[in-house]
Amino acid sequence: MIKINKLEIENVKRVKAVKIEPTSSGLTVVGGKNNQGKTSVLDAIAWGLGGNKYRPSQPDREGSVVPPYLHITLSNGLIVERKGKNSDLKVLDPGGQKGGQQLLDSFVEELAIDLPKFMNASNREKANILLQIIGVGGTLYELETKEKEVYNNRRALGQIADQKEKFAKEQPYFTDAPKEPVSASELIRQQQGILARNGENQRKRQRVTQIQAEFEQHGREVVRLTAMLNAAQEKYSQAQNDLAIAQKDALDLIDESTAELESNIQQIDEINRKVRANLDKDKAETDAGDYRQQYETLSTEITAIRKQKTDLLTNANLPLSGLSVEDGELIYNRQKWDNMSGADQLKVSAAIVRKLKPDCGFILLDKLEQMDLETLQEFGQWLEQEGLQAIATRVSTGEECSIIIEDGYVAGQEISTQQPVQQPEAKTWKAGEF
Q: How many domains would you assign to the chain?
């Protein structure tokens, strides 16, 4: 990994003259009070390595007649300079060959010199950067799209099943109602059949009366017409036989009642209401069961998709243990970005940025005063463990600071510049270590 070995800055923003030799791995903290030039140091590095898009709007130090000067020595032997009236870039390799911004861009990661750009991105943008780095963005997007589609379908089925179950529970059930709706025309047809049979019975009764009258008439004829006795006797005997037969037929006749049918005809609307209610309840229960079965099937499918996602990220070459993506957001040790500590946010950012360009072994960090000393030490230890170089600023003059910037200079540093520098009057500098 390529790191910054030495850094010389003169007349850039608030910096008057600063020389720094950052530690090769771990945290180099540039401390000092406000408005002393700490952030100007980082801005100068970003300009020197990142190109003119990082050029400050007013790069010249206020009050200086000497143009800005930058000299950066990298661990791969490259020397990067900006000097002169136009602050032209010059890049020299150890063999004396010249290069330009394109050479720097090949290994300097933009987010390494502009980490806030990553940290201030949306949660989805951060996650997408990580997914593109590890090469699973497209596959994970397809799985998440499929999961969302199946999840929405399952939710819709679940809602329908709940509605059907609720409807079924609210419906009354009539055990005395028939299974199918009753037809009024069928009841009327049955009634007409009974009336027809009763009419036939009535005609048979009338025939009994008629034969009885004939029998009596023939009896009188026997008395009155003695002369015709033989003929009348024969008729009488026949009539007697017919009477016996008719009486026998009429003896077991029972008229059927139409009362129940008449009652059913009158209550047909109520009966059919009960039937329909029972049918609705049965259908709702059946539908609820069907939708519940479909819901369970989709639940199984969602579980399988989520396992695919987990396996995809588990097998991916993630830049940091405990780092993952869930629902399109970065997750570190099961915490979303806004629930991570400041140290964890910096760890995640640094790890991802390093993965973008593995050759870039340094990052720039501004305003680390948000960290307490314990957290700062923990973060520094992690950087050393990862072999990563970080140059950071902090509003402090404590022992945690590698150097202290005072009025544009490194406190206690002997001044030796590459070009004339306006120095404050009555200012004494002592030699010190970087």
A: 3
